Amino acid sequence: LCILVSFFLGFCINLLLLQTPENILAQTNNKTEILCELRKEHTGVYWYRWSQERQNFEFLIFSSSLGKATYGTNIRKDKFSVHGASSHTSYSLHISHLHASDNGTYYCSVSQSSQLLLGSGTRLSVVDVLPLPQKTTQAPFSKKPVRCVTKRKASSKKG
Q: A Gene Ontology MF term for this entry (predicted)?
């Protein structure tokens, strides 16, 4: 898979980046956050979005370890921001003003040995109305002991 992805896109999925959560279901006009944890310190993190609908891989933002952000073409600065921990091994992408056009799979990425290593990806689905949680019903709990009654076969009477 890594060779195939690397061959076509120049990217490689790597386990040195732990990206969470795997899936996000969020409501329109709300905000969300994706976390990327690195096994070792890097000079910064890139964020990309794969849109299945548009069939494109889009550069969103690069955040340097110094906190300086570089945005991709036509990317709104009020929509995307990155917050990094002082250790430079944890970065979170914040996406605000969610809209259906934000649907896609988001990847954090670092540059290493002239390759871009990708995280595992976070699938974001934005909906107008969140589904209601499923209600679970439980049988009522009785404190009274229950007596089991077994029917005995009536003895047949001849007569």
A: coreceptor activity
Closest by CA to 30, choosing from 73, 79, 71, 68, is 79
Instruction: Please confirm whether the linkage preceding 140 is cis (ω < 30° from 0).
Output: no
Q: What is the pTM of this model?
A: 0.73
What CATH number was assigned to the domain covering residues 17-127?
Answer: 2.60.40.10
Count the alpha carbons within 13 Å of 143 in the hemisphere toward its beta carbon.
Answer: 0
CB 30 within 8 A of CB 102: no
pLDDT in tens, 52-67: 888 899 999 999 888 8
Q: How far apart are CA 134 and CA 60, in angstroms?
A: 35
